[in-house]
Q: What sequence folds into this?
């Protein structure tokens, strides 16, 4: 029963729901913003050498790094959710659209200049995301090849029974 | 040699080693994490049946997930280390774009994903696009 339900579930996921698109959007936005915070935080710190690796740990408690880590936690939670119903080779190109969002925000909100080179990059990413978004989000597999975590199924069935 | 002008304090091979470390650890972490999430199943369904606690329990009781997180943590510290020595405009495009390609290769061989022509095209276009956008 579980196998049949899972196979139907996989087929249903070929067309993503609005909620799933929202999760992909969260992955897209949180990752580049988090990286930007990390970059700003790390460039303000003095150079860290391999001889003193613990200095990296102390860097974790600076405000920009804390903000970056908070955003990356949000990214990771939505990223894990996306990976549970879509292929890695679907999620990664699709969520690269976040780079375009950040570039467009910097152009129209912060009024930063965007070179022709960057516009070319934006066009390439948009076309790439369009390519992958038109295809299925998950590789279909026969029911007997589906990876199943036996440990989690009883917990689910118990909840359903209740 | 292309990298040399952007890295005044480090040599070409040092920069290449830093970026390669980010790419390798990041690819290993993402493939292991993706494998873990596939073995767990749809988190939305698990949450619908067992609530948020059930979904969190399903994730944190998967050993493969922690292996993935371990590699992603290594990639994170490798990124911090590289950002401390090189400009974001070099580290971000090089690591982000090349990781897309290495992930596609690793997903095909280790996760048995159907990386068809459409996905290869998307990966390469996004790879080049990220490079131009962030460089």
A:
């Amino acid at each position: 029963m579980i196998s049949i339900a899972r196979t139907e579930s996989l087929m249903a996921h070929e067309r993503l729901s609005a909620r799933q698109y929202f999760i992909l959007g969260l992955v897209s936005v949180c990752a580049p913003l988090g990286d930007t915070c990390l970059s700003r935080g790390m460039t303000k710190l003095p150079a860290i050498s391999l001889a003193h690796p613990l200095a990296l740990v102390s860097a974790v408690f600076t405000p920009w790094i804390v903000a970056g880590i908070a955003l990356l936690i949000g990214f990771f939670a939505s990223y894990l959710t996306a990976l549970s119903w879509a292929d890695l080779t679907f999620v990664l190109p699709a969520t690269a659209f976040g780079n375009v969002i950040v570039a467009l925000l910097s152009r129209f909100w912060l009024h930063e200049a965007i070179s022709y080179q960057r516009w070319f990059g934006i066009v390439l990413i948009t076309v790439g995301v369009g390519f992958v978004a038109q295809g299925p989000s998950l590789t279909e597999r026969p029911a007997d090849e589906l990876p199943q975590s036996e440990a989690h199924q009883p917990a689910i069935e118990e909840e359903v029974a209740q | 040699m292309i990298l040399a002008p952007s890295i005044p304090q480090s040599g070409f091979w040092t920069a290449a080693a830093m970026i390669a470390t980010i790419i390798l650890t990041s690819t290993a972490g993402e493939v292991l994490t993706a494998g873990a999430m596939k073995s767990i199943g749809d988190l939305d369904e698990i949450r619908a049946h067992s609530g948020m606690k059930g979904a969190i329990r399903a994730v944190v009781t998967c050993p493969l997930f922690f292996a993935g997180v371990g590699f992603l943590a290594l990639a994170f510290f490798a990124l911090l280390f590289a950002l401390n020595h090189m400009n974001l405009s070099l580290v971000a495009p090089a690591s982000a774009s090349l990781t897309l390609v290495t992930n596609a290769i690793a997903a095909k061989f280790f996760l048995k994903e159907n990386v068809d022509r459409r996905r290869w095209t998307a990966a390469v276009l996004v790879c080049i696009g990220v490079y131009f956008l962030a460089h």
Remarks:
- Chain A touches chain B through 59 residues (CB under 8 Å).
